[in-house]
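Session log. Operator J.P. requested a structure for one protein chain; no other inputs attached. Running the standard single-chain path with token output.
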Amino acid sequence: MSTATASARALLRDCLVWDNHGCMPVNRPLDTSFLPQLQRYRAAGVDAVMLNVGFGEMGVEEHLRTLASMRHWLKARPDEYLVIDTVHDIEEARARGRLAVGFDIEGANAIADQPSLIQLYYDLGVRWMLLAYNRSNRVGGGCQDEDGGLTAYGREVIAEMERVGMQVCCSHTGHRTVRDVFDVVTKPVIFSHSNASAVHPHPRNIPDDLIRDCAASGGVVGIIGLATFLGPVEDLTEAFARHVDHVVQLVGPGHVALGLDYVFDIEELNEYLAKMRHTFPPGLGYEDAVRMVAPEQLESVVERLLSWGYARVDLEAILGGNLLRLARAVWKPSQAPAGADGDRS
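Structure written below.
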């Protein structure tokens, strides 16, 4: 083992590592066959992960069924997992060698026309929600659709998210809508899984001015590991590191995080891309979406950044410290009654 590899491995072992977006199957709520693969995160040195429980056109019932299924499976295995309710849960899980798991939602279709659902989702462990998922909705514009900006309903949704402690996420969201978001938010905004347009131009990636606005809000940009958004390259880990480095050079290491968007069920991803092909303009690289940075490749990413002269303290922030800071700043106590969902041990 080289000295650089040993240093990267030691860093992943010694600091908090938090992947802010992972994708298990969400269209089959009774199928938990992929969930044992969560152990791949632990084996790769990841301490905390946010799992997607729904996206796009999925409705309220579909989101809640998936969320209930994942929570039930995780809570039946308390020696391996801890479902996140508080910031302390993340630290406790790491200290006890368990994986801390929270949840996220990709698009406000999950709440339909009912903002009161935001509190319910938050009480069930959802810690961030996208405003739109590629297509426009009643909240605002998607990044691959006509973007009319943030709606009055969207402002109501953001106010409720900030009230309950759920982070506002602008990945997949149209840039005009995002600019409107920065005009109304009072809390840090995140791009949970978005890369830099300056490194690879793509409608899903974000321009430098939005990266600066995100940093000015106190938020972070989570770098995504899908080849589609990294660029037409062979070495995905180097490309991932280059997107990290671009954001760091632009706004500093305190505003970068991990949002791998690793998809465990490739078949489900391919089925979705085929079904929604009419929404993906040609030439955007979606046919390359099955190539992605896996959790096991984080060591190579860290090794690359170390070779570029990154300080340990900066890598600790990027790997998890920045997300922990945001959680402490934004999250609020759940309103779920104690014991309502079983033992939290």
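Operator note: The chain has a mean pLDDT of 93.
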